[in-house]
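Below is one protein, fold included:
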Amino acid sequence: MRSAIGLLSGLVLTGCVADGSPSGSQPSKDELLCIESGFVPGTLEFSQCLATAKIAREAAADYEKEQQKEREKRDTISDEMANRICVDYAKSQMPFPVIRNQSSPFNVNGGYEKTVKVSFELDNPKTSYSSRSAVCKIRGRDIVDFKIN
């Protein structure tokens, strides 16, 4: 009889994932793994193998969720830092030189994923007054979307 711990380790290490839904005539990844491991469909051992595979898949999913939470906690920046990142990037993208930042106080929303809105007065030689706004979407410390309005 195969060791349940050995199978559990094998499932986690191989990244075996099945969606758990019935798949008609196609065996699931869990079923294929159990068959490849020498278990015979319809036996108690095969059922135990499938149960172990499900537990391993759920444990791997829980572990990945915890890892994502830790990454988000570690990489979440302050609103002030998000505003600075957006202001610096937006200044470099403006069509005319920036006279001053008109965004005070900070207009920042979100946690790990933040939306930052900034506006600037620009030195546009064609008009007496020109301003532009920009919106940055920041994930961690990275700008993932940027628009000038």
Q: What stands out?
A: Residues 79-148 form one domain. The two ends are 66 Å apart (CA to CA).
